Amino acid sequence: MQPRPCAALRGTGVSTAPHTVFGRGFRAIDSDGWRAYHVMLMNTIGTPRAARLFPSFKRILLTALLATFLGSLLAPAAFAADPEIFPLSQIQPGMKGEAYTIFAGDQIEKFDLVVIGVMPNFLAPKESIILVQLLGAKVEHTGVVAGMSGSPVYIDGKLAGALSLKLGQFNKEPLAGVTPIENILSLPKGQPGVIRAEAAPGEAPPSQQIAQQLDARFEIPSDWASRAGVSGGTFLTPIDSPLVFSGFSGVAIRQFQSEFAAYGMAATQGGTADARPDDADIRPGDMVSAVLVEGDLSLDASCTVTAIVDGRVYVCGHPLFGFGAVQMPMARARVLTTLSSDLESTKIVNVGGTIGSFSQDRVTAVVGSLGAAPKLIPIDMTVSTPDGDKHFSFRMMSNPKLTPILMGISALNGLVQNSVYGEGTTLHLTGGIDIAGHSSVTLDNLFPPIDSFVPDGVPVANAVQNLFQRIFSNQYETANIERVTLRMESSPNRRQMTIEGAWLDKPEAEPGDTVTVRVQLRPYRGSPVIRDIPIAIPPQAVRGTSMQILASDSSTLNRMSVVSGSQARLDSLEQLIAVLNRERRNNRLYVTLLGSSPTLVVQDKVMPNVPASQINLLDQRGGPASSLVVRESAAGEWSLPLDQIIQGSTSITIQIK
Predict the structure, then answer these.
(1) Residue 653 CB contacts under 8 Å (≥ 6 apart), including other chains
(2) What is the pLDDT of residues 68-78, one digit of tens each?
(3) Fewest Cβ atoms closer than 10 Å to its Cβ: which of 121, 199, 352, 591?
């Protein structure tokens, strides 16, 4: 709470600056005040007025100290561990209260408010909102600020709720919605200090009301709008939580900000602060952050502490993501300043040391506890160019919805926010994903520069994001990722070739013969080149028939039903990893010999030229879509590694004599 100057000392020569706090509720006059007191005594000592002035001044001084002390006792018990609750049923229009938040530094400041009324079932059934008008010079200047969500609201010294809603953008009218404290404290409690890795098996996903609240506009009924003094058609929306990016470039943030905006996150540039011994000494009105990424790159979502009850820390007054049971590290957040804006005022935040974990992300609050933090995924990323290498080391939370996005933005940022990076180069992505109890996923692909007006690193980021999405969305088991290694090597120029045509060294062949496929490739802005790939005709090829030879890039083969069909019929994470590792690479030229006999796909196994008797046997066994018959069979596949990206496809026919 902001200390008040002693009005009784005005005109006495004693400083009325904010006083130093000693302990709880006791304020002593600061050094300037004592100095002025001493000077006045020295000037009056030995004069006829001294005997009269000294007792009089002493009474004034003691009165001022007593008034300040009593004022602190009468203030709301904002820092009590078990606050007294003001019931929603007793809230009436016209009631006055106050809220506490930080505008700058570590100073929790009070601002006044008046209740306009209670809007029953405003968010959802049995989810009411207290509509209030904020009062005071600061809030009338800034309006409701991003990062203010969770600020505790008191009426008659009792905790009534948390600021959670504001008017829509381009509106600095200090009208706000307050989530009642009863709705906040009624959330599932779980066990303080226990870190839950994921939702329990069979637990329902976030409800529709959470999804709606995250990106919702709650229109104020016309009679309530008139009562609040705003125009009809006005709506309330959840107060944004500053999404603090540190070490990220504006290019990367803009590319992915829409992904986070759907969750009510206001992307802001921020920083990290050194951990301090008092980071965990949080009180209602302080700011904390949910840690998404930490290390050389840092990404955190910040809001205000509402209450600390029975060892549980309640923050935000609304969901961050609405995931329900979560595991997110909790860190101290320190406010540099509050930026006022007609679009949206926001707090500029630095994130400090990790102090605990969040375990619940629900419709009316985010709940956590001080102590141990959940395990994060370690990431090692290297960007290599002819001008030098740069290495990044960071850690990120493990979550099926967020981790793929976080990996995508981190990969893009690792490229574009790099002193050795330049556009117009070919990027070679390599690395691995280590998954506990399973084989590693191997990354190896080339990416050419692109002509559209987006960074060349975007396709790399999209590929990384897509790969993690496929791993996390598997239906077999939770992927416990232990470590990720990424290396992105930049090579000058556009290394890209297009397939223009293909032919054979002879138009006919006998079963068991070897023929050479000659493929014409045209480099980007270069002269055509020819590459030869020998292939073998299978001994079991039927004489008097023809076979198709497909010369293609990796994408063409990966899209073929043989691959897509196998992915749909897997039964374990290990089989999915096998399919991912078997997918073709785009820096190879592929030649595939296709026959008319069927191919059988069973889970992650592809079996060409399967006899009809085996197909019939599997059909009779039935099963839950465990097999697939593809009417065209790959009788053989060959590839030629090239230091180029291959694009396109063509096919030719060979006669079997």
Answers:
(1) 546, 547, 548, 549
(2) 444 444 344 44
(3) 121
**Residue 473: C-alpha distances to residues 206, 466, 576 (Å):** 16, 10, 11
Contacts for 504 with CB less than 8 Å, ≥ 6 apart: 515, 516, 517, 518, 549, 652, 654
- Asked if residue 104 belongs to a domain, the reply is yes
Examine the domain organization and report whether 448 and 517 are in the same domain: no
Domain count along the chain = 4
One domain for residues 45 and 101: no
Count CB-CB contacts under 10 A for residue 384: 17
> pLDDT per residue over 76-123, tens digit each?
444 555 789 999 999 999 999 999 999 998 899 999 999 998 988 766
E-assigned strand segments in 405-555: 425-435, 441-447, 481-492, 496-504, 508-509, 514-523, 529-536, 546-552
- Three-state secondary structure call for residue 117: strand
pLDDT value of position 465: 93
Q: Is 219 exposed, middle or buried (0-12, 13-18, 19+ CB in 10 A)?
A: middle
Together in a domain, 602 and 511: yes
Does one domain contain both 483 and 435? yes
2 in any annotated domain: no
- Residue 28 to residue 515: CA distance in whole angstroms: 97
